[in-house]
Amino acid sequence: MSLFRHSRRRFLQGAAGTAAALSGLLPGRPAFADEVVVGFIYVGSRDDYGYNQAHAQGAAAVKAMAGVKVDEEENVPETEAVEKSMESMINLDGATLLFPTSFGYYNPHVLKMAEKYPKVRFEHCGGLWTPKDPTNAASYFGYIDECQYLSGIVAGHTSKTGKLGFVAAKPIPQVLRNINAFTLGARSANPQAQTQVIFTGDWSMPVKEAEATNSLVDQGVDVVTCHVDGPKTVVETAARRGIWVTGYHCNQSVLAPKAYLTGAEWNWEQLYPKFVKMFMAGEPIPNFYRGGLKEGLVKPSPYGPAVGEAARKQADDAKAKLTAGGFAIFKGPLVDNRGKTVIAAGTQQGQTDPTLEKMDYLVEGVIGSTS
Amino acid sequence: MAIAIGAKLARRDARGDQLRRAAESIVIPLLALLAAMILFGIFVGVQRVNPLTLYALMYRGAFGTWFSWQNTLTRAAPLILTALCTALPAQLGMVIIGGEGAFVMGGLAATAAALALPDAAPLVVQLAMAGAGLAAGGLWIAFVGALRHYRGVNETISSLLLVYIAIALLNQLVEGPMRDPASLNKPSTHAIGTANMIGSIPGSEIHWGLAFGVIAALLAYVLVYRTSFGFAARIVGGNLRAAQAVGLAVGRLVLSLCFLGGAAAGLAGMIEIAAVQGRANANLAAGYGTTGILVAFLARHNPLAIIPVAILLGGIGASGGLIQRRLGLPDASVLVLEGIIFLMVLASDTLYGRFALFTPRER
Question: Which residues pair with B171 in a beta bridge?
């Protein structure tokens, strides 16, 4: 008993000492008057080999700029928490330009904050800004399906079975567009190629992603790709099972140096410094910004060792055509996998066509269903 | 005369004992918290971060400014309600960890109620939403209680599994029958409408959920410690056989407390829709129900203690961003701190009754 009493006194002494030390120890962060604070908010961890890492790489490029201070927060859910993170960056750190990077942040959270802080600029990834929204809010996104098309070409050439696999999160327009572009690319290389799709139901479900990859391999699929937040599980599982894989979001070749063919990557390292520079110079940034290979918003990963000459040539050609502009991935006659014509012969839907943003079908050659 | 004085002294003694017990139940958790802070200080010290700098920053992020306080209280609001989902059935000795499921069902039902009344007055819609949220959450956990009482199914496991079912149901409805076709890449229901949203507590940006949470916790305290119903529940929790032997209606107690706990979490889900999100989608399952379990255990299932504990955890969450930004610590460090606090508080259970200062005086 006396032992406890003794230690209790010691505890109190310690506590008093700590309190004394705490006062006047607040680490200040003197912001220079000409220093711009740019905040980045991620929905997952910034080293996820996926969606968030791609944005963090963009943030790292901004960090390298002079006169800029970068503020980062990871694992911020799409709830009030993100509003508080934005406000905290604005109020406590003096951020004037924010990049809340997850799709679900936009409505209502970014819109609410943009109204409340009219002097702060909000650049959101993936949202659909409309003129009804505050003018200090903006949305940007990339046509990454162009890179999925290139991945499809490489996959179509490389596959020996003609069976490709796609592990997807949810049957929403963005994901369907990637699956379709990948399949159209593959079938331009091998008209017999087919893509088996498995939807896991959510953005980050490593266990289901591994199960899906394994079951695809068991069905004879020999090239797999994905559209989930962190492709790490799919890439590693594919490599372990001895099949090829094409990446998504960022470069995953370090995870599977031999099995990695190529991948569809975001190129935020190029866009973010550009936006920050425009912001610092006081130039207007478009409120609605979209772009693909041509604008440098997306890029394919460098080819892996397993990619043959024919595949490289056809993919490089397609890349050149997409970069030059005028080449449409989605053009008629296009039939979905239920036999219905979705784009009539003679018409084509260019990247900026709003119909593509509402895609609700899977093209012929895809095995799977949207519901 | 002598007898009267004796009785008075005995009363004073009894009051002193009560006071000592109360002091014990405050001091021991505080010691546990302090021990956790020291351990976590060593943990961050190893990563070359000065623990004092860290705690100073955490204080600033959680309680240092009016903005920080609002941030903390906003985060604490849903935790008070979801903690009750674990704490109320815990009076009966049940360990329910499925508050997240009741939260999701409450939010979903509240949205459905609002969408079913497109032309009603806002107050009517809000009352219908609250009713639907309370009922859906309550029935969800009452079902767990029924499985336990009538079929002997372990309530911890069944409540956990029901969380997955609730989330699957949410996704199915949001992506199917209840989907707003205009919500392209983020399947959501139609919005409940700005007019139907419940606002903030005047003079602040903290939504009314905080007030509902505090009221619910106070009511729960009165129910557990000041009514015969609560007394009966605690007897069941202390000794089920004895409770049955004296003829307590165990089944009724199980179902009612599970319903009330689930209703609290369901109300939190309703508030998340009516005060924050404005529509139901996958964001509803953000983990408030899970953190509520931690709050309930830290508060040792005392509804009154839930309020400060929820504020403490809200504060840790609120300061998490600042320590990420200023010290470059990963987000997971906040989870490490929460984990250490949890362990210390559980371990501190062995300290009760071991301090001479707090034990009843010998007469």
Answer: none
Q: Give the pLDDT confidence of A102-114 residue by residue, as tens digits.
A: 999 998 899 999 9
B304 vs B47, more confident: B304
- pLDDT 10s digits, B179-204: 998 888 889 999 999 999 998 998 88
φ, ψ of residue B206 in degrees (nearest 5): -90, 125
CATH code of A187's domain:
3.40.50.2300
Are A213 and A224 contacting, i.e. CB atoms less than 8 angstroms apart?
yes
Boundary (domain end) residue, out of A110, A142, A174: A142
The reply to whether A248 and A317 lie within a common domain is: yes
Instruction: Give pLDDT tens digits for A182-209.
Output: 999 999 999 999 999 999 988 999 999 9
The C-alpha atoms of residue A72 and residue A78 are separated, in whole angstroms, by 16
Same domain? A43 vs A128: yes
Tell me, yes or no, whether A285 lies in a domain. Answer: no
Name the residue among A14, A15, A29 with its Cβ closest to that of B326: A29
Per-residue tokens: A123: 């650049």
Contacts of A145 in chain B (CB under 8 A): none
Residue B174 to residue A126: CA distance in whole angstroms: 20
Burial of A358 (0-12, 13-18, 19+ CB in 10 A): middle
Cα–Cα distance, B30 to B345 (Å, whole number): 9
Interface of A with B in 223-242 (CB under 8 A): none
Domain limits for position A253: 145-265+298-325
Q: What is the longest distance spanned by two Cα atoms in chain A?
A: 92
Confidence class for position A5, pLDDT limits 50, 70, 90: very low
Cross-chain CB nearest to B283 (options A79, A89, A171): A79
Domain termination residue (choose one: A105, A125, A142) = A142
Please check whether residues A223 and A205 belong to one and the same domain: yes
Residue A368 covered by a domain: no
User: In the 8-state DSSP scheme, what is residue B120?
Assistant: S
Say if the ipTM goes beyond 0.85: no
Cross-chain residue pair A26–B60, CB shorter than 8 Å: yes
User: Of A322 and B350, which is predicted with more confidence?
Assistant: A322
Domain count, chain A: 2
Q: How far apart are CA B269 and CA B163, in angstroms?
A: 13
Residue of B nearest to A16 (CA): B34
Would you tell me how many other CB atoms lie within 10 Å of the CB of residue B65?
A: 14
How far is residue B138's CA from residue B153's CA, in Å, rounded to a whole number? 18
Residues of B in contact with A15 (CB under 8 A): 34
Task: Specify whether A132 is located in the same domain as A256.
Answer: no
The DSSP letter of residue B96 is: -
User: A204-225 as b/e, with b when 16 or more CB fall inside 10 Å?
Assistant: bbeebbbbbbeebbeeebbbbb
Cα B341 from Cα B351, distance rounded (Å): 15
Q: Are residues A53 and A152 in the same domain?
A: no
Quote the pLDDT of residue A2. 40
pTM of the predicted model over 0.80: yes
